[in-house]
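Sequence and fold:
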Amino acid sequence: MLLAVANHAVLIAVSMAFALPVLFMLMTALMTDQQALSSSLIPHPFVWSNFSKVFSSINLPRYTWNSFLYAGLSTVGVVLSSVPVAYAFSRIEWRGRNLVLLLVLSTLMLPTQVTSVPLYILWSKQYHDWTGIQFIGTLKPLIIPNFFGDAFSIFLLRQFFMTIPKELTDAVRVDGGGHWQIVRRVMIPLAKPALAAVALFNFIYAWNDFYGPLVYLAGNPNSQTLSVALASFRSLHHVDWNLTMAAALIFMLPVIVLFFLAQRVFIEGITLTGVKG
């Protein structure tokens, strides 16, 4: 009994450590300009109009749509491209499999900034000359690479696929099914928790991504995402902490809602991924 109380007390203390900054942001977002700079913690009065001021200060619907477009299509691309690769690494025996897997995982140690200059040159010159399509200033350089797989997502799904009993895949082969039938009828239905975890990881990464949109979208304000818009808003209202906190809360809200909706499946996927492999 005492051990259970102690465990719950520790969990409550840790949860409060994460919740208090968000609560402080909310209280500050509801304050007046003068009160936000004071030592007061409770707003009096509650200024709900701060949120409407944020909407009137920047083109928030446009930036929100750009962020959803970037995060949503990137997530779809990563999931679609990582599943067959993860299956090949987990269930198909082929020469050099472990070496190729090691090369794929080694890309995780390569910082994004290292390849940003050559990639920018490719998108701005080579790909533009080959296709005649304008890439710089659009979301294409941020979305298209995700349809070619992601090392972390491939490894996560590979670990989960290895926990699926081989008897299930052998049963599909006995019925005359090939690899695509195994993926469609066995792997994907059983790997829904892992797929949800991969999707949530990539959605949050794309939603919070600041470096990529800053590099490729700086010349086109209409294509900017919320992360870049929030930084611009902060520079314009660097002393208006109430408006800054209100804008930050609006930026955080979709991710918080998404996490709570997918919380059970997400935790299940993370837990089961490390069982075997």
Q: What stands out?
A: The chain has a mean pLDDT of 86. The two ends are 37 Å apart (CA to CA). The longest helix spans residues 60-91. The CA atoms of residues 21 and 27 lie 10 Å apart.
